[in-house]
Amino acid sequence: MKPAEALHGSGWHAILELGITCENKRSTLTRRRHRGPLLVQRPFYPEGQSVCQVVIVHPPGGIAGGDVLEIDVAAHRDACVQLTTPGAGKWYCGFGREARQSVRLSVAEGALCEWMPQENIVFDGALASMSLDVDLATGARFCGWDFTCLGRPASGEQFRSGLLRQRTAIRYDANPVFIEQGIIEAGDEIRSAPTVLADCCAYGTMFVVGGERNDDVLSNAREVLADTVNAGVTWVNDTLVARWVGQSTEEGRALFAQLWSVLRPWYAGRSALPPRIWAT
């Protein structure tokens, strides 16, 4: 059976639904519903009451063939929420079964949502499908990133078999502003093409939507990436998009953390404060 033809099998089906509201300039987690092994810790407020920081936890620690994870988050009017994870998402060998994760983010007028998970590690033999759907109302703001590592280079494991599907769709005022989808099949020679991964095993993308388009912002962002030959940033319509490829997601995360520190005062009006969970 070819990886692209693998059928989804039985496994964990986990659902997490969150709602964040704002009252008296305090962003509060007012809806929390989960089923299966997907939940959140208590919200944190390292930046004061206006920004609700939520850590999404998947207790099994890895995603196996047949698992389905569904995350649905609504940031209501004027709410500010930062979503992250305590560690890397590990996508195990599927043994012929696909694993799926879908993330849906709804951001109301005046609200800010930051989707900043740690990296995904796709093990050899994994059949993985990841999707991110973001719906922004007029006046909403969004910053998000994702990092992917194919195989486990630190352990000498390459991504020799398996399949990865990834899709991102961002809409602003119901209009699509960024849509991308791709399939990486382990044996496909196109992975080595200079315009694709150039023989790299790790890559990352960062998006910012809702900040007022400003040429100085782009110049400052490019200054951060100036000494990195395998990274770049540009406008796609009114969406700021940064790309990076390399051999270690740690390198990419460190680079984008610098970029975030430059961009956050622009789109959020506050300086960047990395979540403490990233350092554990």
Walk me through this protein's architecture.
A hairpin with a 2-residue loop joins β13 and β14 (175-185). It contains two helices and 17 strands. The N and C termini lie far apart (41 Å). The strands form two sheets. Strands 3, 4, 6, 7, 9, 10, 12, 15, 16 and 17 form a ten-stranded mixed sheet that branches. A seven-stranded mixed sheet has the order 2-1-5-8-11-13-14, with no helix packed on it. It has one domain. It has helices spanning 215-224, 249-267, and strands spanning 13-23, 26-35, 39-40, 52-57, 68-75, 80-84, 89-91, 99-107, 112-115, 120-122, 127-136, 141-150, 163-172, 175-185, 202-209, 231-236, 239-246. α1 packs antiparallel against α2. It is mainly beta.
Mean pLDDT: 93
Percent in strands: 35-45%
Strand segment count: 17
Distance between the ends: 41 Å
Topology:
Elements: E1 13-23, E2 26-35, E3 39-40, E4 52-57, E5 68-75, E6 80-84, E7 89-91, E8 99-107, E9 112-115, E10 120-122, E11 127-136, E12 141-150, E13 163-172, E14 175-185, E15 202-209, H1 215-224, E16 231-236, E17 239-246, H2 249-267
Helix pairs in contact: 1-2
Quick overview:
The protein is mainly beta and 280 residues long. The chain is built from two helices and 17 strands. The protein has one domain (3-272).
Notable characteristics:
disordered N terminus; 280 residues; single chain; mainly beta; seven-stranded mixed sheet
